[in-house]
Design brief:
By secondary structure, the protein is an alpha/beta fold. The protein has 8 helices and 9 strands. It starts with 8 loop residues before the first strand and ends in a 16-residue tail after the last helix. Bound molecules: NADP nicotinamide-adenine-dinucleotide phosphate.
């Protein structure tokens, strides 16, 4: 059903398929206008036409390769200059299941450039305007491998650990300025991600795979409830609370003038 409230404009990266396309649909239905970013212009245009038809929201397409510095700069400029933007969804990303040392280092570098560098630059472009206007939100799509890097390729896990740590830091610095920040940690989700990463979805146990629609609905519920970290597939939230409380309890003890006694030479 179409939502009549006007919430400003959301820029969604990686909106041509999977999780990003579902975000676009669910945000339009909640009353956001959209700017859709990915490389495949035709897919973006098809989605834009269907969402405009369904929701009557304004949906614009910006075809861009976020691994290309000029294309990335154009999206950064849009984030800097468009005061109607209220939400950035940093979703574009790639992964792989190939073991770390068997992976091509150039491919790993391109993964870092997309999952980390582009996400960081887009955030840097959006934040000053959000702060000046005293409102705005950033949703960063991380992964369960942010906290479980042994599950897939280690560089992929490293990029997603960055996204989680970056989100914690952004929240720490920006919450008091009225800016909302959320990291979403999906488990295995039924999208083209798996095919693109070299492991077709059919090879996964169905019991661990969520639909993109369920994933995004749960993530938006977490966002609307004010969560900074949302893990849609984790049923026992006390496991996350224990993990996070242990990390925060250790934090004041991590820098001291003397080595811990256990490191005294025998
Ligand atoms: P997907 O269907 O393959 O979508 C990836 C999106 O990123 C596509 O729209 C793709 O569009 C875009 N993209 C890829 N390279 C790009 C580039 N160089 N420049 C601009 N856009 C680019 O996979 P997905 O599962 O929805 O992935 C979305 C996010 O969820 C990723 O960050 C991924 O790491 C994360 N995630 C996925 C899973 C999962 O199991 N699926 C689990 C945890 C986290 P174009 O090809 O048109 O550019």
């Amino acid at each position: 059903m179409t939502q009549q409230v006007h919430r400003g404009t959301a820029l969604v990266t990686g909106a041509s398929s999977g999780i990003g396309a579902v975000y676009a649909a669910q945000l339009a239905r909640r009353g956001y206008d959209l700017v859709l970013v990915a490389r495949n212009r035709e897919r973006l245009a098809t989605l834009a036409a269907s969402l405009t038809n369904e929701t009557r929201q304004d949906v614009e397409v910006l075809a861009a390769d976020l691994n290309n510095r000029e294309d990335l700069a154009a999206i950064e400029a849009r984030l800097r200059d468009d005061a109607s933007l209220t939400l950035l969804v940093n979703n574009a990303g790639i992964g792989t299941h190939t073991p770390l040392v068997e992976s091509d280092v150039d491919h790993m570098t391109r993964m870092i450039e997309l999952n980390v560098t582009a996400l960081t630059r887009l955030t840097y472009a959006a934040v000053p305007g959000f702060v000046a206007r005293g409102q705005g939100a950033i949703i960063n799509i991380a992964s369960i491998v942010s906290i479980a890097p042994e599950i897939l390729n280690g560089v992929y896990g490293g990029t997603k650990a960055f996204v989680l740590a970056f989100t914690h830091s952004l929240d720490h610095e920006l919450a008091a300025k009225g800016i909302r920040v959320q990291a979403v940690l999906p488990g295995a989700t039924a999208t083209e991600f798996w095919e693109v990463g070299g492991l077709p979805l059919e090879h996964l146990d169905k019991a661990i795979v969520m639909s993109a629609e369920d994933l995004v609905s749960a993530a938006i519920t977490g966002f609307e409830r004010g969560e900074t970290v949302t893990i849609p597939s984790l049923h026992d939230v006390e496991q996350w609370n224990a993990f996070e409380n242990a990390r925060r309890a250790m934090s004041p003890h991590l820098s001291t003038s003397k080595p811990a006694p256990r490191y005294r030479a025998a």
